[in-house]
Each structure stands twice: as structure tokens, then as C-alpha cells.
């Protein structure tokens, strides 16, 4: 076997440093969260224990950690459902050109480049000037959709751009109605992509800060609560919270990946069964 060039080792070292830079802060917070009762916010560690995780579940003197978590989780689910539904509808609509479709496409993408804090300010002002309550479930919900919908729509545009229309034509030839074709042919085929859009919608909403800052009203979401804790909490309980939220995020990602894998296997099995039926 030929010896590997020196550039290989240089690129490997560079990639390792990049991974360390990417995940180093998260790993550091995870390590510091396991300090003993007398631990502080910096190294060196003072003992090793689960004290701060237990303390996290006790009645907190400051903040509303679990209330903010429930709000972020609920908001994430709301945003996820609407993002998936509207993205699919938009993807289907853009399969054919219609008057103003190009302008509408650029308007959708534009919301991604507008500073998030300006979106938050604008949505908050719109609700307050209209006499509506500025609340995480209304104005916060709307401001987060300006962030998640463009991603979902761009994914669906790419999916339907590569979608083989012969599947739909075959279903119609067999007498399927448009709704049956959508439900039993199109949606099962694009199911892995729908799971990806759902994952985008939930995770982008769950950790969104800037677009929720001026639209959440009197009740904080989890990112806002954590930010507030950084100004008045001087113990590793903050790190314990960061560790748990990171593990929760990884759990959500793992669940979505498992659903995507299951959808792929079912689609492959359905295709195999259909092929056997033809034989």
C-alpha cells in the first residue's frame, strides 16, 4: 500500500481541530455540570457528582425553567405541524408556474436574510398596534414561522423538482382520485423528506432566540429563560440545564432519524411487494 501524502495528515488534523472547535463548548459545559456541591463556573472542577442535576429539579429561587421548557416544547410542536403542512402545500403549488410565482419565491427567501431581531420587532409592533396580545403562542408563533417556513418550502421545492410524475400518472390510470393519489402515492414517497422538514421546524423553533425576544410577551421560552439565568445564576445548575437540553435535542434528532429510517424501509418493502405482485 502506498504511503499517504503529508497533506492527508494535515487535512485530518485540521478536521479534528474543526470538530473540537464545533463541539468543544458543549463538551466543556457537559463536564462542568458534573461538579460537586462546591463547584463553580470555571475549571478546575471541585469534585464529581450529580448534585446540580438534582438541584435543577428542586424549586428554583430564580426563573421558571420547566414552565419555559413546556412553552418551548409546545411552540415547537405547533411550528412543526404548520411548517410541514404549509411546506407540502407550497411544494405542490409551485410544481406549475403561476402568475407571480417568481416574485412570491423571492419574497419567501427574503425573510431568511432580514435580521432576526428586526423580524421580532416588526411582528411585536404589528400585534401591539393591532390591539392583539403579544404572547408566545400568537406573535411568537408567527415570528418563528417566518424562520421555519422558508427552510421547509425550499426542501419541498427540491423534493418535488426531482419527483417522478409517472407514479401519479400510473395511480390515475388505475382510477385513483387526486386525493387518493396524494395520500397513497405522493406522501408515502416523500415521507423521509417530510420527517426532515418536521425536524427542521421543531429544532429551529425550540432554540430560537432573536425572533422570540420581542414577541414572547410576559412568558419566556426556554432560550430566553436560559439567557436571563446567565445574568443572575452563578452556579453549575446552569450547566446542568444546558446538558439536559442538549441531550433532549439529540434525543429528538435520534427519534426523527429513526422515523425516517422506518419510512425508508417501509417504502422499500412496498416497492418489493409491488414488484413481486407484477411477477
TrEMBL record:
The keyword Amino-acid biosynthesis does not apply. The chain crosses the membrane at residues 7-34, 73-94, 103-127, 147-164, 185-206, 237-262. The keyword NADP does not apply. Keywords: Cell membrane, Membrane, Transmembrane, Transmembrane helix, Transport. GO terms for biological process: transmembrane transport. This is Inner membrane ABC transporter permease protein YdcV. It comes from Boseongicola aestuarii. Its main location: membrane. It is a multi-pass membrane protein. GO terms for cellular component: plasma membrane. Belongs to the binding-protein-dependent transport system permease family. CysTW subfamily.
